[in-house]
Amino acid sequence: MHRVDSPGSVNGLFQNGNPVVGQQATQLLADWFNDVQENLAKVVEDAGLELEKGNWDLLRDAIVLMIAGVVGDGAGAVPTTLTITGAGLATGGGDLTTNRVITVPKASTSDVAAGTDDTKAITPAALVGGIGGRVLAATGYATFLGGVILQWTTALANANSSTTVTLPTTFPNQCVFADFSGGSVLTNAEDNDPVVIGRSASAITVFSARNDNVSGAVFAIGF
């Protein structure tokens, strides 16, 4: 469809013309009338109606049918009896008579930490917060899903004595494994390298039979 563009039209509009000022009236050419006619006829026919001379209601009826189709009462429309409802983790929805909302519940950090709720989605923020604390440094620790905690630090094992090494963080329950890595190859039995002889949730005890202080790394696992 197009606005009239025949001689005498101005900016797509019809003009009556004015002989006093020499303004030409808009010429009525077939191409514009045919364009308008076929656009209107298409609305009627696409609505499933037949053109009928003298019927002034056809265009209105066609528009009413098409609008009814949008809300589910016309041919080819989406029936409003269909529904969209939640499944799995999603809840909400309903029939298509109005706008509907589907909601996916979000797990909190405490939900992640508890590890028992199977009805919520986990976001990256909740995952990091729910797993637990962490310090990624030379002396630090990391908490994993399920509550397992790995810890590491450096320590100095004193010569011919026991040394208590405080862990970077206290295990909530217990330390199940700890090791001290440091020393050198010696043949004298009394010069055995440092060894872990005790552990608690917050510290380990290292005994060294060496005659000199020994620097090393401590690694612990617990929960």
Brief rundown of the structure:
By secondary structure, the protein is α+β, with helices and mostly antiparallel strands. It is built from four helices and eleven strands; from the N terminus they run H-H-E-E-E-H-H-E-E-E-E-E-E-E-E. It has two domains: 1-70, no CATH class; 136-222, Immunoglobulin-like.
Would you kindly provide a written description of the structure presented here, covering whatever features stand out?
The chain is α+β, with helices and mostly antiparallel strands and 223 residues long. The chain has two domains: 1-70, no CATH class; 136-222, Immunoglobulin-like, CATH 2.60.40.3940. It contains four helices and eleven strands, in the order H-H-E-E-E-H-H-E-E-E-E-E-E-E-E. A five-stranded antiparallel β-sheet has the order 4-5-6-11-8, with no helix packed on it. The chain has a three-stranded antiparallel β-sheet with strand order 1-2-3, with no helix packed on it. Helix 1 (30-46) packs across helix 2 (58-70). The radius of gyration is 42 Å and the shape is elongated. The two termini are 75 Å apart. The model has no long low-confidence stretch (mean pLDDT 88).
